[in-house]
Amino acid sequence: MAWRCVPCVPAISRRSFLRDKIINPILRPELHVGLHQAPRGILLFGPPGTGKTTLAKWMAASSGASFFEVTPSSIISKFHGETETLIKALFKVAEADSPSLVFIDEIDSLLGKRREKEDDTSIRMKNQLLQMMDGVSSCSGDKVLVVVGATNRPDMLDEAAIRRLSKRVLVPLPDFDARRVLIRTVLEKQSTGGCTLSDQELGDLSSRLEKWSGSDIRSLCVSASERSYDETVAKFGGIQNVPSRAAFRPISFSDFLAALEEVRPSCTSEESLRFFDEWAKAHGAL
Prior knowledge:
Blueprint: H1 12-27, E1 41-45, H2 52-63, E2 66-70, H3 72-75, H4 82-96, E3 100-105, H5 107-110, H6 120-137, E4 145-151, H7 159-164, E5 167-170, H8 176-190, H9 199-207, H10 214-235, H11 253-260, H12 270-282
Parallel strand pairs: 1-4, 1-5, 2-3, 3-4
């Protein structure tokens, strides 16, 4: 997976950090010992839909690491003790399949701030996960295991979890150039006619999408493509008469203008966007 596949994360500083501090140590663990040892816990945080999962997959693919994706629903069990067993098994398999990257999505749901009347099941689960994350730092020999957590609510994380996720990376909304690249990439890879928009049209469209996340922009592309789809189905008198995907015309600039009347960005609050910058400054994030 190339860097161009994660256009939502345009900042070169983040790219350099991830390459130098995460990918290179996985590729050459024998060179990264002592003070040069790579961080074993990373937190990706930012607004929803900014490509945190894709970024984690890029890190794994670029370093040749096995990728283990964990969500709260996949690891929390209603049966007594089973959640802790699943957590132990996950880290045991990941270590055996080294180099590995364990990606925990919505990590705040698993390692949220401790509450006064928290139930025993939740406490045991948190303690087990934190214990296994501690063990990551002491992996011996040539074993390389990195834990990457993702959240859009970093303020809800338990302090013990934040300490273990020692490198924190803000994944922001895409800037103007990233939005251009993302639109072009989506059209080239997923639309029948590829990207037929001119550079001027791409620039015009990108300038209209400030504060749009990567997932918002993809939703806009889907909405724009529906006009081509509907026109083609009507032209042939029903979906059963459409000869092939090649019959659908390329998506035009006017299709996007129409879609802009229907699709809205999911994160427009200045306060919520400012929150991520403030949290990043307070917690030493990149």
